[in-house]
Amino acid sequence: MKNYVKIIGLIIGILLPLIPFQGIDYVLRVATLTVLYMILALGLNIIVGFAGLLDLGYVGFYGIGAYVCGLISVHFGWNFWSLIPLCIIAGALSGILLGTPTLRLTGDYFAIVTFGFAELVVLIIRNEIWLTRGPMGVTGIPPITFFGHALTKEWQYYYIIFGLFLIILMLIKRLENSKIGRAWFAIREDEIAAQCCGVNLVRYKVLAFAISASIGAIGGAFYARWFRFIHPDMFKFWESILILCLIVFGGMGNVWGVILGTLVLIPLTEILRNILPQQFVEARYLIFGALLVIMMRFRPNGLIPFTRENKK
Amino acid sequence: MLLQQLVNGLVLGCVYALIAVGYTLVYGVIELINFAHGDIYMLGAFFMYTFLNFGVPFLPSFILAVFCCIIVGILLDIIAYRPVRYSERLAALITAIGMSIFFENMALLIWGADIKRYSANLIPSFFRKLFINLPNEHIKNVFLTVSYLQVVIIVLSIILMIALHLIIHKTKIGTAMRAIAQDKRAAALMGIDVNRVISFTFALGSALAGVAGIFIGMYYNSIYPMMGYIAGIKAFAAAVLGGIGSVPGAMLGGIVLGMAETIGAGYISSAYRHGIAYAVMIFVILFNPAGLMGKKRVEKV
Q1: How many domains does chain A have?
Q2: Which end of chain A is flanked by fewer CB atoms within 10 Å, N or C?
Q3: Which of A234, A236, A255 is nearest to A246 (CA)?
Q4: Nearest to A116 among B108, B271, B282 (CB)
Q5: Exposed, middle or buried by CB within 10 Å (0-12, 13-18, 19+), for A307?
Q6: Cα of B229 to nearest chain A Cα, Å
Q7: Which residue of A has its CA nearest to B88?
């Protein structure tokens, strides 16, 4: 079983960087979107999968990243590469802002507060027209430049997001097996027991929030410069749920599971968009709802469940 | 102006209270936030729409729609929640979110995304008549209009709340509900059919949500598949405000929230109308999670 998973992983790992060579722009766009969602899912997985807190407001951080990046590029003309650190800081700050007061909360209440946070973010974006242009959206965001060249080809964006994805993946794998990762797992398994064993709850929970939020913000920043248009409706509650679906489907807490879940579901939505008759297209999330319910019923730990490696 | 806002707030608050009670009942009994509850409210409005358009008269449509909501509520419990009842909390919560998405898209598929209205000739014209219309020749300085629909909403809500209170405190099944809320296992040992009582709880909550949906459908005269989402969240905020698990708390929370919302929309900013509910909810959870009338909970190891 383990080898079987590894071989599939290897094949996918070799295929992913080669996608731009198939030459169809639409497929490439879907691939870019998929990798972007992989980044978001990995980010959310830190809070939900590693630390065991159900965050329903992840899209709030994604939106903050997108708007910070979009607005600053439009008004001040910063380039993408110098905006990334800024978005990381903005994300981390908003993560800490949300993480600190919610420290005491667990389970359902935590989920509801994070949900409220994301809704407030969208409300503010929609209503503070002087700053965000509200429902008109931000238009005219410049493309990413690379040593002075504006990138306009789809494959260039694909490799940028793929590179970001690899860096984030490496970082998360390192974190997972570090002291920090173990502390998160301890918190997930039993908060009180973890505290008794000397895990500083405040520190590790806020850290989980900050890292997770900055990854979301990076995703948002890329999205703004890639799509070159952002609108409050892009950061609605459903996005949070969609990202949550990816994690639940793939296997909460398991990095490879999360990646696999994204690889299956995001292209699936695009395929559904194309093959379903017109009246069903808008309701294609019905399948996601049913999928969540069925997964929880029959395979609550996802496609590739999280297992602890036995290390001597 | 203020008086008018207060009356509008009271009407809205009564509707929130009707939905909030459903949240709090289910939470009290099985400790699950039933995310799909708001969608049952939405389905109530749509069932009413469908029956009216099939030519069923007003009152039978109303009863049939509420009855359909009860069926949906019971099915929701049996099909979705019962299998995950003894698994992790997270699993049950995600199931609830999944069912909510499912219902919303189902409604989208069946009734379409555009806003539907109850056509005026199908609703008794009695509801549109004005109960109070100020200023008139006697009272000149007060500006207030109250329609019969608003009066009916308030009165019927109060009657339903009293009925609910009686069911919970005076009947056998109500006693069983309270027993399960305290200790599911012990209740089962006392010979209570736990699954049946939980289904009954869902039925009660769904009936109230259905009534609320029909009221709002008539009051705002617009129904659409996503209406359950915002109303559900606000009702949940109301339940939290009152202290989740407490039925009188949910009623009080609903009315306070409804008034806060209309007054906030009238005097502070109508753009942040929905934001007020979210802000209230977040602050109550952060600073006083037990709510106005809830019990303090102690975490046991």
Answers
A1: 1
A2: C
A3: A255
A4: B282
A5: exposed
A6: 10
A7: A300
Whole-angstrom CA distances from A121 to A46, B35, B286 are: 21, 21, 18
Amino acid at B97: I
Q: Which of A90, A54, A75 is nearest to A220 (CA)?
A: A90
Establish if A135 belongs to a structural domain.
yes
**Segment holding B131, helix H or strand E:** strand B130-134
Greatest Cα pair distance, chain A, in angstroms, is 58
Distance CA A162, CA B211 (A): 51
The token pair that represents B90 in the structure block: 């997270």
Q: Under a CB-based contact definition with an 8 Å cutoff, are residues B210 and B41 in contact?
A: yes
How is chain B split into domains, by residue range? 2-287
Sign of CA dihedral A26, A31, A32, A36: positive
Mutation choice for B interface testing from A292, A301, A306 by most B CBs within 10 A: A292
Assess A244–B contact: CB distance below 8 Å, yes or no.
yes
Q: Are the C-beta atoms of residues B157 and B19 closer than 8 Å to each other?
A: no
A128 domain residue, yes or no: yes
A279 falls within a domain: no
Tell me A233's DSSP state. G
Top CATH class, B2-287: mainly alpha
On chain B, the residues whose CB falls within 8 A of the CB of A282 are 108, 113
Q: How many residues are given for chain A? A: 312
For residue A228, the enclosing domain spans 32-235
Nearest chain A residue (CA) to B111: A279
pTM of the full structure:
0.85
What is the rounded CA–CA span in Å between residue B78 and residue B95? Answer: 13
Give, for all 312 residues of chain A, the pLDDT tens digit: 567 767 777 777 777 777 777 777 788 888 889 999 999 999 999 998 888 888 888 999 999 999 999 899 888 878 888 888 999 999 999 999 888 888 777 677 888 888 888 888 888 888 888 888 878 888 878 888 777 777 777 888 888 888 899 899 989 989 988 899 889 988 888 888 888 888 888 888 899 999 999 999 999 999 988 888 888 888 888 888 888 888 888 888 888 888 888 888 888 888 888 887 776 777 778 888 888 888 888 887 777 777 655 443
Helix then strand then coil, % of chain B, to nearest 5: 75, 5, 20
- To the nearest 10 degrees (0 to 180), the angle between helices A201-227 and A80-99 is 140
Cβ atoms B254, B14 nearer than 8 A: yes
Min Cα separation B226/chain A (Å): 12
Cβ pair A286:B93 closer than 8 A: no
CB contact under 8 A, A296 and B274: no
**What residues pair up with B144 in beta bridges, in sequence order?**
B134
What lies within 8 Å, CB to CB, of B238 at 6+ separation is B16, B17, B19, B20, B250, B253, B254, B256, B257, B258
Residue A3 lies in a domain: no
Of the partner residues A113, A126, A282, the one whose CB lies closest to the CB of residue B282: A113
- Residue A150: count of CB within 10 angstroms of its CB: 10
State how far residue B257 is from chain A, nearest Cα, in angstroms.
Answer: 15
